[in-house]
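Exercise 7. Given the encoded structure of a 298-residue chain, write a plausible sequence.
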């Protein structure tokens, strides 16, 4: 970057040009008239051009000054705006995150609880979403779910999602506890609208060519599906990140081992390239919690 004139010189020039008076500029800048005069003279020496015609009791702009002034004024305004923004941001102790209801109710609460314990002075707001995110301007951070082939480069995948079949501990098929994939043909299947691939992947995984996927209960809400499964309405296929809290509470079980990678995953993105310190703290916290979850699965 080329050598630039001192910012003080530019501020004195702009004020003097606006008032057409070194005295008035000095009063605005809270300095002496001689200081403003010296600043302007130093700027004139720097650019090697006169900026003012100095009359007995007034000033007038030279052609050079008239051409130079708009750019200087615009630059100073940009600096002022940027400085105010930076100086105010550390005092903003609020973070807004948007997250699908399913993950917000089953994984995010533990993340928020631990974050609040360490950073009780930062206020969090959570917007639950269904299928699509809220308006981009609403949240500082967003978690969304996308097919792995459709995620954009600016998104960070939180983890590789695995699917599992879950049911109530006492759920039975033809009078026997569900423990064998071959029993699924007679089980009540709960389907997630928009995710028919879940049961199709299970059918392919176990080679259940006769398993019909045309019947059963359907819902667009993963949590509702798990609530119904926990009441022995049927069994459902869902990402393990969602079923974990129900399994930990003893409401659901995984009746048999299964290892299927979901074609959908959760992705994380920040609205601003340079977030506030509070947003950066929570962003790092979320990413670490996601990394910890990946390690547990390994």
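Solution.
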């Amino acid at each position: 970057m080329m050598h630039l004139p001192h910012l003080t010189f530019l501020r004195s020039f702009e004020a003097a040009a606006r008032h057409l008076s070194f005295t008035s500029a000095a009063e605005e800048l809270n300095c002496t008239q001689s200081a403003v005069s010296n600043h302007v003279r130093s700027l004139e020496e720097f650019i090697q051009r006169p900026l003012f015609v100095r009359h007995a009791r007034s000033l007038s702009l030279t052609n050079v000054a008239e051409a130079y002034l708009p750019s200087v004024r615009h630059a100073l305004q940009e600096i002022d705006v940027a400085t105010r923004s930076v100086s105010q941001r550390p005092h903003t102790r609020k973070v807004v995150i948007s997250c699908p209801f399913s993950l917000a109710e089953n994984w995010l609460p533990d993340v928020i609880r631990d974050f609040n314990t360490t950073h009780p002075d930062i206020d969090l707001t959570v917007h639950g979403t269904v299928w699509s995110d809220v308006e981009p301007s609403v949240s500082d951070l967003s978690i969304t779910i996308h097919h792995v082939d459709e995620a954009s480069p600016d998104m960070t995948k939180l983890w590789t999602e695995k699917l599992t079949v879950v049911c109530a501990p006492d759920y039975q098929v033809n009078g026997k506890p569900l423990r064998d994939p071959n029993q699924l043909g007679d089980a009540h299947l709960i389907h997630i609208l928009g995710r028919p691939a879940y049961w199709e992947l299970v059918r392919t995984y176990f080679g259940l060519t006769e398993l019909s996927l045309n019947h059963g209960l359907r819902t667009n809400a993963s949590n509702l599906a798990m609530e119904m499964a926990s009441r022995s309405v049927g069994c459902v296929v869902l990402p393990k990140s969602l079923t974990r809290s129900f399994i930990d509470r003893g409401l659901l079980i995984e009746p048999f081992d299964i290892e299927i990678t979901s074609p959908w995953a959760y992705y994380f993105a920040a609205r601003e390239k340079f977030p506030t310190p509070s947003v950066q703290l929570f962003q790092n916290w979320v990413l670490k919690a996601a990394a910890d979850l990946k390690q547990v699965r390994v």
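Remark. The chain is about 45% helix and 20% strand. Students should compare their own answers with the one above.
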